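Comment thread on ticket #2218

A.B. wrote:
> Attaching the input chain for the structure job we discussed in standup.
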Amino acid sequence: MNYSTDFINKIIRGDCLRVMKDMPDNSIDMVLTSPPYWALRDYGVDGQLGLEKTFQEYVNKLCDIFDEIKRVLKKEGTCWVNMGDTYGNSNQAGTKKFGNPEFNKNRPSRESTKTPEKKLKGYEKCLLQIPSRFAIEMTNRGWILRNELIWHKPNCMPSSAKDRFTVDFEKIFFFSKNKKYYFEQQLEPHKEVSIKARNSKLNQTTNIGANKSAVNVQMGDKKRGDRFIPEGGRNKRCVWKITTKPYKEAHFATYPPELCETPIKAGCPKKGIVLDPFFGAGTTGLMAKGLGRNYIGIEISPEYCKIAEDRLRQEILL
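C.D. wrote:
> Ran it. Output below, let me know if you need it in another format.
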């Protein structure tokens, strides 16, 4: 393949590990993706991730993919991975089937042979901690974990469980390939209480008097206040409150465009390339183009390739 014409701003259908073998070393600025979660859905595609018999096998297979991602990522590149957890719960054994029957009508049933079983000995009703296991294995393989971000979903799906709390968040891991990497600081508005506290401190200094020493005290306080409450906002925190937004063609809620915005702004320079090896409905590509970056999407499902292609043609973000 010709890298410049066959990959950039294109969706490549296929297994991401095999597709990336044709991509050159140190060629991608940033990776942003949400891999298929373990034992959650059967997309009806041979070779799909998430149908492994055990979560340990899933984590190892996923990290093998990220070994290849590390090769194609530039030395100053970053990698952002959204991942949810699951329970070893006898009430949730097996996976939900998704996909267009036209793509799957000639495929044998997976129920008896390939569908993973969540009824794991020793893990019944236990939170499996798959995101944490993934992050630890990534660091064991040389990745640098810079942040564990929390995507708080205020409109999360209700849970039928009555013996635990409803989970209303997922994790996003921010990795770098090396100690020095591209990162543009992202700011958020100051909390009103912080602004009031600074203003209160400055007002106290003005009451000391109108002499020269009082003015010096006030200026000194202002400098200290600006150091902790700088103009333009504060450094963005690790809990991101973003509502889910379903896409009608995707059969389930894809991650929302707003979730992609901050990582792309922070981790990819203008006109750089964002790779999503699990492209799905194409949200990463939409936001990359909307923010003035390029994208490469890899997707194993022919149905989702079509969904993403149609969506990219129809929607214009920002």
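A.B. wrote:
> Thanks. Noting for the ticket: Residues 189-234 form one domain.
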